[in-house]
């Protein structure tokens, strides 16, 4: 009896390919987080005077660092599978810019708040990413609801920019954590399915870059939400 048929070999190959893809995706995502952390540290501790002075002299540049990551994110999503190297470079630029942004807002929080937010977001992210990767349950319906809730939250947050209500901001931070908990699990599951369905038609590294971007943004938003929660709790 032949116990080493072609189907068995194909399953082993598919699993090995999936493991390689996940390693690349989470490796690039972790690298992006590390680059952001280094950028934030350098901005706060080495180039603080130069950076603050530059933005004081050129206040319009604040809009550039706010809008450029959005443009780069779109560029990665559309081009990474065709140009993985370009996608990787854009991902690192996004990570650097967000690191600078973190440094600019870090002054409003204590080191304890920042550490607590990072540990909390890392723990929640790892738990939900693992769950999304291994669960057999289809999370697409939950992900769609979370995405709709995120759009509503963005609109409400823009309105609150004019109302300037700390209580609303505090509540929205908890809502954001819930939303990105769901989105993290959904994105992890979605990228696994995209690899299984389209890896033969696209660059595996390109798909890993796209997945790393999605998960990096989930982590960043979890971190910001936890930072607001811990910061406002301390003030209370």
Structural commentary:
It is a single chain. This protein has about 240 residues and is mainly alpha-helical. The relative contact order is 0.15. The chain is globular and about 50 Å long. About 85% of the residues lie in helices and about 0% in strands. The chain is built from 8 helices and no strands. It is a multi-pass membrane protein.
Overall morphology = globular
Total beta strands: 0
Spell out the helices and strands N to C.
Answer: HHHHHHHH
Count of individual helical segments: 8
- Beta-strand content estimate: under 5%
Structural class: mainly alpha
Radius of gyration over all CA atoms, rounded: 20 Å
Largest sheet report? none
Subcellular location: Membrane
Membrane topology: Multi-pass membrane protein
Pfam families: Bax1-I
Protein name: Bax inhibitor-1/YccA family protein
């Amino acid at each position: 009896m032949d116990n080493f048929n072609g189907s068995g070999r194909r399953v082993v190959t598919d699993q090995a390919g999936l493991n390689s893809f996940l390693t690349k995706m989470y490796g690039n995502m972790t690298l992006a987080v590390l680059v952001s952390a280094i950028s934030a540290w350098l901005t706060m501790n080495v180039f603080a005077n130069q950076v603050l002075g530059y933005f004081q002299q050129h206040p319009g540049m604040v809009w550039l660092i706010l809008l450029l990551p959005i443009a780069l994110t779109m560029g990665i999503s559309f081009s990474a599978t065709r140009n993985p190297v370009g996608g990787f470079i854009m991902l690192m630029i996004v990570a650097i810019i967000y690191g600078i942004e973190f440094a600019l807002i870090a002054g409003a929080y204590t080191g304890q708040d920042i550490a607590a937010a990072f540990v909390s977001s890392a723990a929640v992210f790892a738990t939900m990413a693992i769950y999304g990767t291994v669960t057999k349950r289809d999370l697409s319906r939950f992900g769609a609801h979370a995405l709709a809730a995120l759009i509503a939250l963005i609109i409400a947050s823009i309105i609150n920019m004019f109302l300037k209500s700390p209580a609303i901001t505090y509540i929205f931070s908890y809502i954001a954590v819930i939303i990105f908990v769901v989105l993290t699990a959904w994105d992890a599951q979605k990228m696994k399915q995209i690899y299984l369905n389209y890896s033969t038609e696209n660059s595996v590294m390109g798909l890993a870059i796209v997945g790393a971007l999605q998960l990096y943004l989930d982590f960043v938003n979890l971190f910001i939400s936890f930072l607001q929660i811990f910061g406002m709790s301390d003030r209370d």
